[in-house]
Amino acid sequence: QVRLVESGGGLVQAGGSLRLSCAASGRTFNDNAMGWFRQAPGKEREFVAAISFSGLNSRYTDSVKGRFTISTDNAKRTVYLQMDSLKPEDTAVYYCAAANWVIPTTTKNDYQYWGQGTQVTVSS
User: Fold this and answer.
1) For the chain, which end, N or C, has fewer CB atoms within 10 Å of the first or last residue's CB respectively?
2) 63-69: long-range contacts at Cβ-Cβ below 8 A with a sequence spacing of 24 or more?
3) Residues forming a β-bridge with 93
4) What is the maximal distance between C-alpha atoms in the chain?
5) Could you say which residues of the chain have pLDDT below 50?
6) What is the rounded distance in angstroms from the CA atom of residue 110 to the CA atom of residue 105?
């Protein structure tokens, strides 16, 4: 049974920073793809960033490039999303996801395991 637990969400002013964490348990993640997605009220869940658990490959959606950084800590079996220069349009519930393969993709259907989500609210 795979379990993903997100933490680190909260309320921040525009221009501020937050760091989200996703702790993985229940199986060994060697080089599995890990992703962050987000869902704003009334909108579809969308891709934010993804990385192979080894940290060698990563990708981002265009709207967060240069502001967000995804990283991993294999020893802690944790994936992070450092979010800087936050904007009100970044407000959403952020979800961590894990896949059964290596290549970090942008499609939510490629991920088999999901966390419960953590709320990020950016005030203007």
Assistant:
1) N
2) 63/89, 64/90
3) 39, 119
4) 41
5) none
6) 7
